[in-house]
């Protein structure tokens, strides 16, 4: 799929105020600093459409982007960021779960995990929660530029093995890097296919 236009629409802390248009929507979720905002910039060929930072906790609101005038990409705050206060964490948690509960136009979620790390309980629990709530998702492994090809393969296989302890099959997944554009075509192609199926 070719990205012809990408524009920032709106930031919200209230799910009720998110765009009402009903355009098909795709949300990026995952731990703080995993690379959600960077991936949006990579996919849309824009350096700073979504704000990124080396320090975790940069994205604090639900950000809607309009792509090719007919679908939405959504940048969400990260979960599991240790340095925010407990009460802030609760607020984040609440609007993240509300987002997934209320956005009927969400076609699928993308759960981002850093390819360098072993499966983390917080990510596995979040995927479990999505499954229990009937919310479709794919996994996006990020920062693949940080590993050599054989290490990438090994880490993906390890992840698969852990998931297959609780899941019947491995969820759909993508290996990506925002630094060198690994996975860009596959991911955009997948979204394009889903969009086509919506019509
Ligand atoms: P929060 O908004 O805090 O939840 O973080 P985020 O998930 O949006 O992460 P963000 O895109 O802001 O990136 C966090 C850091 O990781 C930044 O320093 C990015 O430059 C870096 N980063 C993101 N993607 C990649 C990647 O593919 N490769 C490398 N090497 N670094 C990356
Ligand atoms: Mg972010």
Task: Please describe the topology of this protein.
Blueprint: E1 6-12, E2 25-30, H1 36-44, E3 62-67, E4 71-75, H2 86-102, E5 106-114, H3 121-132, E6 137-142, H4 149-163, E7 173-175, H5 184-198
How would you characterize this protein structure?
The protein is α/β, with parallel strands linked by helices and 199 residues long. It has one domain (6-197): 3-Layer(aba) Sandwich (Rossmann fold). It is built from five helices and seven strands, in the order ββαββαβαβαβα. The chain has helices at 36-44, 86-102, 121-132, 149-163, 184-198, and strands at residues 6-12, 25-30, 62-67, 71-75, 106-114, 137-142, 173-175. The longest helix is centred in the middle third of the chain and has 17 residues, at 86-102. The protein is globular. The mean pLDDT is 93. The site of guanosine-5'-triphosphate has 23 residues, from α1.
Spell out the key features of this protein:
7 strands, 5 helices, binds guanosine-5'-triphosphate, Rossmann fold, globular, 199 residues, 34% helix, binds magnesium ion
User: Helix/strand-derived class?
Assistant: alpha/beta
Low-confidence stretches: none
**How many extended strands?**
7
Sketch the major β-sheet.
7 strands, mixed
How many helices? The count is: 5
Class in CATH? Alpha Beta
CATH homologous superfamily caption: P-loop containing nucleotide triphosphate hydrolases
The 3D shape can be described as globular
* Order of the strands making up the biggest sheet: 1-3-4-2-5-6-7
**Helicity, in percent?**
25-40%
- CATH T-level fold name: Rossmann fold
């Amino acid at each position: 799929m070719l990205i012809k236009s990408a524009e920032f629409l709106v930031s919200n802390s209230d799910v009720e105020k998110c765009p009402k248009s009903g355009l098909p929507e795709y949300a990026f979720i995952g731990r703080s600093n995993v690379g959600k905002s960077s991936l949006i910039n990579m996919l849309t060929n824009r350096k700073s459409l979504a704000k990124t930072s080396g320090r975790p906790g940069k994205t604090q609101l639900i950000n809607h982007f309009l792509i090719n005038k007919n679908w939405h990409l959504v940048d969400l705050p990260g979960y599991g960021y240790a340095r925010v206060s407990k009460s802030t964490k609760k607020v984040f948690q609440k609007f993240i779960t509300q987002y997934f509960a209320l956005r009927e136009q969400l076609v699928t979620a993308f759960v981002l995990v850093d390819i360098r790390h072993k499966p983390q309980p917080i990510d596995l629990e979040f995927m479990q929660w999505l499954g229990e709530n009937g919310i479709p998702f794919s996994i996006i492994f990020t920062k693949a530029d940080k590993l050599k090809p054989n290490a990438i393969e090994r880490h993906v296989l390890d992840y698969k093995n852990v998931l297959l302890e609780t899941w019947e099959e491995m969820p759909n997944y993508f290996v990506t890097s925002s630094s060198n554009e690994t996975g860009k075509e596959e991911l955009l192609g997948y979204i394009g296919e889903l969009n086509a199926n919506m019509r």
